[in-house]
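forwarding from the other thread:

> can someone predict this with zinc ion?

sure thing
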Amino acid sequence: MTKDQALSLLAGKIEAGRALDMASALMYWDAVTLGVPEQSLSARGAAAGWLEGESFRRFIAPDTLEAVETLEALSDGLSERERAMVREMGRAYRKAKAVPPEEMQQFGALVAQAEPVWEKARETDDFALIQPYYEKIFDFKRRLCYWYGYQKHPYDALLDDYEKGADVEMLDGFFALLRERISPLVKMIGASGQKPREIAGTFPLDKQRELTPWLCAFVGYDTARGKVGEVQHPFCLTASRHDVRITTKYHAGDLLSSLYSVIHECGHALYEQNMDEELEGYGLAECASMGVHESQSRLYENMIGRSRPFAGILLPKLRELFGGFADWDEDALYRAVNIARPSLIRIEADELTYCLHIIVRYELEKDILTGAAQVKDLPGLWADKYEELLGLRPPSAAKGVLQDVHWSGGMVGYFPSYAVGNAYGAQLMHAMRKTVDVDGAAGRGDLSPVNAWLRENVHRHGAMNEPEELLRRATGEAFNPSYYADYLSEKFTALYR
Ligand SMILES: [Zn+2]
């Protein structure tokens, strides 16, 4: 195969894969925002399964490897984009090939069965229902570590699926630092006796729906190249560079839930919308990692959306839309959106205690994987760790070990990306502040200098560089979680002084 043949073969596969993925994404959107007529469930399921299978079959065909190897052999004669494409395709191909196809199929079927069982287990607070599924899923993950191979710790092999470059050594250090720096803050807040005023009342859904476009415009999410839908659990979905959609869920009794989920998903969407369009043809219009994706959503949600300057422009908007808020001032609003209080549920956690929830999951996943802990003991182990880290003991498995969908969805090794994303975000923000007046931009309600910096240093590069290299180029140094610890420490010490 010549270089030109190899390049054009891969380009064809990438284009087909993109079209198939777009079809799958739009089918999914249709199902979760509009719902599926009951009678169409099986036909849809079959079509969705075929689309996904076809995408995989095209990718895994032997000529993909032939093309990759042809190009790897002449690496010096390739452009930077071509080299990155070959790196990413080679990695994905070899990982996919490492797993025996019949094992992969069985795992797919197992996960499809496990998800509804998990829902039932959570509803009925019965861990025993899901236990055998978790056991099989973790068994498969152990074999996966072996097939993928690893240098030091089996968990490293799983991390690579979500967070390239991260390993147990890095995460152990990162989480030890967070334990050391966050725990005293949580204690200090408890001891302060401060009870900031909370936003309470009923907030009509039609008014909340009016707030959403204002938030999208504030972040800079381009709704001419996207859409906002309503679903049970908010997410961001990419059909193409020109069609990046977000979702939210409105609660009449909880104004902040939708408000911050919109800002969060807009952060994800901005990353997707701002990737260089030319990267699509190389299969590189993808996130650098889940952690990098999460760094963008959380940077907008927490570091800007929960900043003091933003409270200054949010308050008049809330008054205009909802009336009331006459007896609030900007400081009180700033405090109200930053209440830190240990809780049992990860997705409801505040900015300060969020990563403690991740530490629980990380330590348990690692122990189950190595056999240091058993699946059957998870509810108790979970409760012990919550008590140790957050000072709370879940009253039930439903409010404890059964709260997350990840394990039943076959995702082991995913949780650390959430925490790592927070820390990437803080490091990027620290670098950005050297040249950008972030607070001034947030206070004016014009984030264009912030967006321009992120676009130039993060968004536009897609998957060109792995996270470590991306951070090095954007901030001038390797991953350094002390920026995140410092940020939390400064913010929450001032809030609860
Ligand atoms: Zn997110």
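The pocket of zinc ion is lined by residues 264, 268, 294, 297 (CB under 6 Å). thats all i got for now
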